Structure prediction request, 248 residues.
Amino acid sequence: MPVHARPTVGRALRVSAIWLLLWLGPVVAIFVTLGLAHTFSEIGGFFSKMAVVTFGGAYAVLAYMAQQAVDTYGWLQPGEMLDGLGMAETTPGPLIMVVQFVGFMAAYRDPGSLPPLLAGTLGGLLATWTTFVPCFLWIGLGAPFIERLRDNKPLSGALAGITAAVVGVILNLAIWFALHTVFRETVPVSWHGLGFDMPVLASVNPWSLLLSLAAIVAIFRFKAGTIQTLAACSVAGVILYLAGLATL
Prediction:
């Protein structure tokens, strides 16, 4: 059996010590130095928590992050979160790099004693660090068990259930973004412990609705490629803006 597939207590302790120090060392230092209420502390704490409690890929993580960043922390407006996702989707690199945009905006708007641009840059780096460093901890600890768990039927059944849950989470993300794209205003509604955003029908953005429907028809009816559809919608959006029919 190769070395990487031999789980030992010593190896687990070494991996944990290295990656926990790299991950939580800066976060704890920020907590102690700046206090728990500081923006950097909130960024470090939130993205560290997100790295622990979320799974299922970028789209599953984005549902939780978008709603927390907008509704709980107030770092961004819904439209700005949409802009961040749009940039992450259309630029090279993994989609989850939108966390850097969120961290930047949070610190830029509440920079404390730092220049806003410097604070935003540090906030984006901190969000990226606390999102990705924990991944190496999970990989380092879990790698020796992969071969043993590959054919484990109970685990396969659990993962199938998790996959179904992730599909629901991604649907939730799609609905959230669709509401804030098509409607300019939404109203938070609570009902028997459930919360959701109710769109204000009078605030519908007809051009956003039209472009969304056109993209759906292009992809599902005419089998247009994703890149071509994104490019066409982007060009249409620029034309609408230059014509004064749409706003940023």
